[in-house]
Amino acid sequence: MSFSDEMNDLQEIIVRLDSGQISLEESIELFERGVTLVNSCRKFLEEAHQRVKLLSSDENDLEGSDWDPLSEGKDDQDE
Question: Rounded CA gap, 13 and 34, in Å?
């Protein structure tokens, strides 16, 4: 399942839980599924962050650095 699919499923779960029209048992099942989806999405985002960090690192910077898209190109404009 893709990240987008998991996010869509998570949104549907939230809507159903917020509706108040489901049983306690179903609410618990949906909550458990939601927690699983959140953990999966978090893992995907952490891996994506690491990939961006690796790809945007300076060749002399073996640890990489956090990517800040708002500061990208700012140094060039200041000169």
Answer: 7
